[in-house]
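Saturday, quiet lab. Running sequence design on the structure tokens for the scaffold JK sent over.
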């Protein structure tokens, strides 16, 4: 048996989507002046970004590695699969280039909220045995001469399956 990559990405997207309501705890958009518009299972570099659809969160798989945990017939052995997800947040507001410093707190709060959702909402179940934020990278992007702030969180999830 192999791991269901599309299903795992959909599950991770679901954690963020369900946290993007005013009644969620934690709320993905907490403390921000603009609510997160959408959470999608896609790669930011492929789908691209539009300012009117920001803030937006992208979830995709970056890499995966597998480790056998038992000796014996291959199909019945237990395995551990470490999947590293890229969780990318895109943030842009009108006048961003003129008031860049004014918008940075919102951008950083967005990243902080994503990390909080990961640490609070991704639950351990029959498959998930470990969840970890391994790094967070902040950068600026300029597609079509439009200024965006982007963060990328490396999320590692270790699955145990047969």
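Result came back. Writing it out in full:
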């Amino acid at each position: 048996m192999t791991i269901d990559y599309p299903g795992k990405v959909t599950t991770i997207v679901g954690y963020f989507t369900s946290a993007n309501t005013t009644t969620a705890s934690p709320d993905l958009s907490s403390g921000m002046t603009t609510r997160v518009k959408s959470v999608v299972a896609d790669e930011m570099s492929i789908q691209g970004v539009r300012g009117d659809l920001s803030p937006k969160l992208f979830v995709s798989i970056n890499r995966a590695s597998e480790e056998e945990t038992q000796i014996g017939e291959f199909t019945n052995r237990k395995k551990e699969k470490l999947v590293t997800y890229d969780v990318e947040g895109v943030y842009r507001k009108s006048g961003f280039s003129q008031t860049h410093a004014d918008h940075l707190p919102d951008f950083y709060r967005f990243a902080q909220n994503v990390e909080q959702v990961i640490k609070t909402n991704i639950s351990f179940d029959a498959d998930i045995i470990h969840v970890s934020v391994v790094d967070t990278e902040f950068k600026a992007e300029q597609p079509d001469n439009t200024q965006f702030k982007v963060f990328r969180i490396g999320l590692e999830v270790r699955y145990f399956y047969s």
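Notes for JK: Strands lie at 38-41, 56-68, 79-91, 128-141, 148-161. The CA atoms of residues 84 and 153 lie 10 Å apart. Ask whether to fix the surface positions before the next round.
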